Amino acid sequence: MKDWAFITNHGLVLLYISKHNQCTVREIATAVGVTERTVHRTLADLEKEGYLSREKAGGRNVYKIEHEFGLKHDLTKDMIVGDLLHILN
């Protein structure tokens, strides 16, 4: 039986970044328990949809989460990202 979790990788990546906005992909991967490749794909998804942006600061990325964006699923469409992160923090 495959392990599962209540929060998806996308949610876990956002949660980690909300606490560590200047983290590396390796740090995110280690914390979430996935490969760096998975983190790259997840970050690309989040950026493409506008949930996340990043800027270079020296050799690191600085991430900015768009807290006012609504969640995607029909059951959670009345919530915003900031609400979810507040609950999880």
Briefly, what is this?
By secondary structure, this protein is α+β, with helices and mostly antiparallel strands. It has helices at residues 9-19, 25-32, 36-48, 81-88, and strands spanning 52-57, 60-65.
Give a description of the structure.
This protein is about 45% helix and about 15% strand. It has helices at about 10-20, 25-30, 35-50, 80-89; strands at about 50-55, 60-65. It has a two-stranded antiparallel sheet. With about 90 residues, the protein is of the alpha+beta class. It has four helices and two strands; from the N terminus they run αααββα. A hairpin with a 2-residue loop joins β1 (about 50-55) and β2 (about 60-65). The longest helix is centred in the middle third of the chain and has 13 residues, at about 35-50. The mean pLDDT is about 90.
List its traits.
single chain; 89 residues; two-stranded antiparallel sheet; 2 strands
What is the secondary structure topology, with strand pairs?
Elements: H1 9-19, H2 25-32, H3 36-48, E1 52-57, E2 60-65, H4 81-88
Antiparallel strand pairs: 1-2
Helix pairs in contact: 1-2, 2-3
